Predict the structure.
Amino acid sequence: MVKIVTDDASDIPEYAIKKYNITILKHPLYFGDEEVTGISPDQFYKRLEKGEMPRTTLLPTGILVNTYLACRQTGKKLDTDTILSIHLSSKMSGTYNSALTAAEMIHDKVKVEVFETGLTTLGQGMIALESATEAFAGQDIKSVKSKAEEVRSKVKMILAIPNLNFLHKSGRLGKGKALLGSMMRIIPMVTFIDGEIIPFGRGRTTSQVISKIKDEMRKDLAKFKAERVKVLLGYTTDKRICKELEEVIRNEFPVSESHIIQMNSVVGVYLGPGAWGISYYPIGG
C-alpha cells in the first residue's frame, strides 16, 4: 500500500488525516529563541496578534529519514510498499530538496517518491488529500502519483491577505507591494504560478473579493468542462468569511465536497492574522 507523507505547510481536513493515515511532518517553529513546534493555531495566532514575530526553518534531513523508516516498518510487519512524500514549492522552502536527499540516503531500505506541489497551504492540501484517497483505494504508486500530477495541473488557490507585512518580513514579497496594500486600505489577493506567489487582484470589501473568486471559478470549471468541484477553504483567525464564501459557492457551483480549515501555524508565519482563502479542484470533463 502507498503511504502519504506531507509537511505541515499542507492544510488538510482533520478527518482525512485520520481516515487515510496521513503522516504530517512539522517544520521547526520559533518565537525568538523559544521553540513552539506543534503549537495550536489558536495559541499561535494569539501571540501573533500581540506583536510577536515568528520564524520557521526547513525540515531537517534526519527527521525525514526517521519518518520514512518508521512508515516503512512497524516491528517486523511491513507497513507500506512505497511512500509518496508531498511538499511545498521549492521556490518557497528547502524542504523539498531535503526530502530528496533523505529519500536517496535510504533508497536501499524503502522506496520514497518525492513530489513537489508548487503550492502550499490549501493547494498543497488538496493534492495530498486526493493522493491519499487514491492510495486508500489500493492504487499503486504509479496511479497515486499520476493522480497527484493531475490535481496539480487543475487545482487553483487564491488567498486574501489583508496584512502583507508578514509576507514581506519573510522575504516572500517586496516592501513596496506590502506598503501599497496597507496605504490603499485594500484586500490584496494572491495566487501561485510556477511555484511562486503572484498578485491576483484586490478588493475593497470582502464581497468584492468573493466576487472575483467566483468569476475565476466559473472560468476554470468551463475550461476543464468540470462536472463538479471539490473545495477547501481556510482562514487564520476569522472563520466567518469562509462560511460566507462556502455558502455562496454551494449556491452557484456543483460542489461535491467542501471543508473549512484553520490554517496551520507554519502557514500563519507568512499570512498573518485575518488571512483567508480557497483552493478548488475541478473534476470530470
Remarks:
- Residues 142 and 265 are 32 Å apart (CA to CA).
